[in-house]
Amino acid sequence: xxxxxxxxxxxxxxxxxxxxxxxxxxxxxxxxxxxxxxxxxxxxxxxxxxxxxxxxxxxxxxxxxxxxxxxxxxxxxxxxxxxxxxxxxxxxxxxxxxxxxxxxxxxxxxxxxxxxxxxxxxxxxxxxxxxxxxxxxxxxxxxxxxxxxxxxxxxxxxxxxxxxxxxxxxxxxxxxxxxxxxxxxxxxxxxxxxxxxxxxxxxxxxxxxxxxxxxxxxxxxxxxxxxxxxxxxxxxxxxxxxxxxxxxxxxxxxxxxxxxxxxxxxxxxxxxxxxxxxxxxxxxxxxxxxxxxxxxxxxxxxxxxxxxxxxxxxxxxxxxxxxxxxxxxxxxxxxxxxxxxxxxxxxxxxxxxxxxxxxxxxxxxxxxxxxxxxxxxxxxxxxxxxxxxxxxxxxxxxxxxxxxxxxxxxxxxxxxxxxxxxxxxxxxxxxxxxxxxxxxxxxxxxxxxxxxxxxxxxxxxxxxxxxxxxxxxxxxxxxxxxxxxxxxxxxxxxxx
Length: 496
Known about the structure:
CATH architecture of the largest domain: 3-Layer(aba) Sandwich
Helix content: 25-40%
Structural class: alpha/beta
Radius of gyration: 28 Å
CATH topology of the largest domain: Beta-lactamase
Number of helices: 10
CATH class of the largest domain: Alpha Beta
Number of strands: 21
Mean pLDDT: 93
CATH superfamily of the largest domain: DD-peptidase/beta-lactamase superfamily
Number of domains: 2
């Protein structure tokens, strides 16, 4: 009798458990179906917008935890990805080098110091490909790092340098820009050259200062103030606001900068950045000038290491500057810095393939894509930053990368580097309403007739959604960005 009651109780407990589990499973399934249906109901009308008739676009939305697709449209087609290329470049860097990889730039001596403070020999600045030799992490003081090197030399008692200031940029090749970049834009900051020894994002900062002096030449604030550039300034002040128009460009293969046009006297100061030619020599020249301002005479010249010139590797290190891959990736994605992305891809080539070239870096990226199941013939890569129109990836490839990195040991570094809706980076003015602010973490991208948005959305149940929206051949950038934002809002509304 007792045994029967026990069996009956056990059966009742099992029945109750199955009932509860069944209700939970049905609720979960209904919620999943409801979410999916709601998402389709939200997205399909957006994609029927008549303005998208001639636009080429693809969409992939996946659940990372469930490894399932939530929405697809031409997700396996290839599109120009613009700066979404940086997602691939920075992910490959985290895979092969990790966030703790250190860039090292050394100031070394080749010679000896006499009792009178004369240094008999050369000073070598040995580059490691670091993009962070600037004022970015030094309260905006562009000269902070080379000034610290000068102080280190002064502290050694050096008063005169008989030799040269040699810039060793040999870790990378000297193919500074990609042949697929727009030739008429190479003086712009976003076309800054890549180099094994770089300085101030390989740009010079020029600010036009307003003055109540119509007809006179515009006053310029140049930072750093160096002889490395020759500026031809014929821009003049005007009282007529309608005449306010000017241009700034650098003649190719030179450091001759031309400023033309008219600047309205009541306009606010206007800051611009002009790329340099031969970045390593730029840094060596500025460093030589800083030494001389600090009372250290340099009898030799600032120059590049010569092709085939052998410098000893056991030289004394007077100063060393380091930075991490983590902070480099943060700047790359958060500020969409093309120069940083190009430094990263050549770093991959130098460190993994033993060749600091774009081609070697692309080989490493191919290796990373192969790990994810994609072969080189299935896509195309021209550079590390996305400035070339020839970069072609599919939405599925990007969400596969994002899903992989979401579970990667260093995935949070990538996540934290992505712009956040309504807060920073390229999304600081997008999706700013409280319900969407800080909910979307995504990389923006834009070049002529190509716009992209790819990243992550957190859900209320702890899942992560990875999405990629690639749009090409449009006429109205504002329209396609609004549609991208509306898709992201739908994801938040349906799953958050």
